[in-house]
Amino acid sequence: MSEIRGRASKMTLGIDLGTTNSSVSVYYGGQMQVLKMHGEYSLPSVVRFPDRKLNGVQVGQKAKKYIVLKPNEVFSSVKSQMRNDDWKDIPEIREKYTLEGEQITPTDIATKILSELKSEAQSWESCDGNFERVVICVPANTTSIYKQNVKDAAVAAGFGQTDETTGDLLRDNNGEVLGITLLEEPTAASLAYGVNKGFFNPKTSKEQNILVYDLGGGTFDVTILHIISEEDQAMPSFTPISTKGVAKLGGDDFDWALAEIISKRIFDETGVDILNDSKQLANKSILKFEAENLKIAFSNGLSEVNFVQPLEINGQDQNFDFTISIDEYKKSIDPLIQKTLDCVKEAMDSVKLTIDDINRIVLVGGSSKAPWIREAIKTSYKEPYTAENVDTIVSQGASYYGSLLASMVIDPVKPKLSHHYGVELNDGTFCPLFLKSSEFGDNEVLSATSIFYNPDDSGRVMVAGWATQDNIEIETDEKGKNKSYALVSARNDNGEQIFEWLGEYEIQIPRKAAGQVPIELTLTIDKQNCIHAKAVVEGKPTEADWKRQ
């Protein structure tokens, strides 16, 4: 077996790196085969550091069972924290991520999960070598920071193609490691759906609009894909024509809604606010854990559930026992469900489609199995389709996509940008360089160049990158340059920030008076929405160092 492990596998792993659970699949023998992880078809995305030591890490169910017993040793639901570095601004989270004096990150947790998935996959009986190539799925509306973090975690976990002689990682012209591909979760699900529903090798031509409603453990996406398959054509084309989502909305939020009900009952009896009192972190973990179990009980058809739990409140053990009805719970989660339905409407409105133009709504993500989700979609739109393998369909689609890349078949996915990408001008407004819904066509990257002058004589320029999924007003001048009057600090009616900070480029320039140094910044964005920059200062190429912290 050691000789087999020493060579690269001919297969590509498909991974759904989920907020709550992760799964792995391989396209093998003409089937999208889900691999077992610790004897199950999914692995809890949970990591534990026993005694808060960096060695002896536990991943999966072994770690999850300590969420209540040892909450300060267990890390879960880290996916949303990988979108940016905001977690560092929260003292209790920053403190939790400091182990043995060393600052670890959510990306380090993702690395542990990916490493475990890879290790388990290597023990698969049909494994033919070291799994170097991988397709990892990401939310449709996530940030380029998240995507880069996922790539970094994948490299740290041992993925990436290597030179057969030296063993060094192979990289493209932009320095990206070869063999690590990102694929949007709804697209992966649609690929698997297409395989199962006969879009491949069709006897007749088909053209459909599929709306993928993807409600996972921590994120929500709705994506509309236009799928065209022609008679005798082996591969249909998948074009995402619209996407909309909420960065932090998923099963965790439905758990917290139930935890909030429980917390209010406890507050009425004790005057202690468990969810907002920093001294109640252990009890908060218990409430979250119990709320998830009670939610599942509701999902399985119970009309009421009982919270029976002893808790230590202000140094005293107290026993709590009360009943919660399904109607009370549904009322608490109705605003969350409505947010998802609003996203569905916005996604259709943005491309001037109605529900009559949608051939099928496909439910994806573990949280979409709840009966209240199906009920809400059916009432507002139409009867949705739930895949039999809703928990693993994303990784299965990723494995199929990986097989296409490995066999050099033409990529069937025709990606479009899901966000507007640009930079911040001196007056705080957003300068859009790449527009939402821009098509790549046959190009591997999109490129845009912006020329500006130094704002001061400091000898350096910091250019901040921003992105937004909102449909902001954009004008195009006579030279074809895009302009927006939207401030990068703008917020929507709900007080949520419209723009997401991507990081900034630091460019070293001569120390001259403001407005005297011409700077030409060229940004490129690839199909995985990863951004690279090159700068020319006074006609000479110079470094544009990417900074995210």
Structure explained in plain terms:
It is a single chain. Helices cover 26% and strands 30% of the residues. The strands form eight sheets. Strands 1, 2, 3, 4, 10 and 11 form a six-stranded mixed sheet that branches. It is globular, with a radius of gyration of 24 Å. With 549 residues, the protein is α+β, with helices and mostly antiparallel strands. A hairpin with a 5-residue loop joins strand 23 and strand 24.
Q: Could you write a compact summary of the structure shown?
A:
By secondary structure, this protein is of the alpha+beta class. The protein has helices at residues 2-5, 61-64, 91-96, 106-122, 144-156, 185-196, 251-270, 281-299, 326-350, 371-380, 393-406; strands at residues 13-16, 21-28, 31-35, 43-44, 46-48, 58-59, 74-76, 98-99, 102-103, 134-138, 180-184, 206-215, 220-229, 237-246, 304-313, 316-325, 360-364, 385-386, 420-424, 430-434, 445-453, 460-468, 475-476, 482-483, 500-508, 518-526, 531-537, 540-542, 544-547.
Give the N-to-C terminal Cα separation.
43 Å
Total of DSSP H or I helical runs spanning 4+ residues? 11
Counting DSSP E segments of at least 2 residues, the number of strands comes to 29
In percent terms, what proportion of residues is strand? Answer: 25-35%
Structural class: alpha+beta
Major beta-sheet overview = 6 strands, mixed
Q: What would you report as the Rg, rounded to the nearest angstrom?
A: 24 Å
Unreliable stretches (pLDDT < 50, length at least 5) are 1-5
Shape: globular
Helix content: 25-40%
Mean pLDDT: 88
